[in-house]
Predict the structure.
Amino acid sequence: MTRIRLEYHGHVAYITLDHPPANTWTLASLQAFLQMMVELDSRPDVVALVIRGAGDKFFCAGADLKMFADGNVEHAREVAEAFGQAFEALTRFHGVSIAAINGYAMGGGLEVALACDIRIAEQQVLLGLPEASVGLLPCAGGTQRLTELVRPGWAKRMILCGEKVNATLAYEMGLVEEVVKTGHAWEAAHQMAQLVERQSPSALRACKTLINQGRSGPRDAALPLERSLFLELFADANQREGVVAFLEKRPPRWHYGASTSVSSNAQDGAPHE
């Protein structure tokens, strides 16, 4: 059974990883996660995504190692591709993705959090990429995304030495953006998603495009794009609505739909299981 759930509340989506006892990834759950991201891509009305783990001990303990016990290379290739496709789809999500890290986040569990825009960790959690200790390596973006966040020295300590870090150290390193009390990650992520809902969906998409462009390429290339996307917003109804609402001292009434998308040139319901 694929234990992963997608729910919608307003303009926010919530994905719950629920595979007892440690919310580990299986090939089926990775494939289900990818399909959920495809669905979210078709929902311009969804501007934020919160990912959490079921229970109070694990956010996600990574891959179910039983998948690799027989040493089958073809099966390992299928799993690695599934990890890559799922988490790369997460990074491409047009809204703001928030990891509510409510327990241990190890291996592929930390990697899904690394693929999010923002990470909130409870004070008791431990985070690590221990793959080398079982003869493997992080294959879902961990070597690259962790290094980008915490710089090479700490990435080498966590990956090459197998060091696990607590929430306080993770915050000091820049691995997480906020630390909250035990049991409060979900509420903190929910409140942050509500802040996202207040923003123009058009401006959100454009701003995320620019931030990612600045991370992946030279600043000199991002600066002209910044001005270009600023002007492009004037072709969208949300630009006028945002300014007029501010001047009239009322909440804006945002428009959701295809017209809120950033141009392709600028970018390389009910719960269900």
About this structure: The beta strands are 4-9, 12-17, 48-53, 58-60, 96-101, 104-106, 118-122, 126-128, 165-166, 178-180. Residues 73-92 form the longest helix (20 residues).
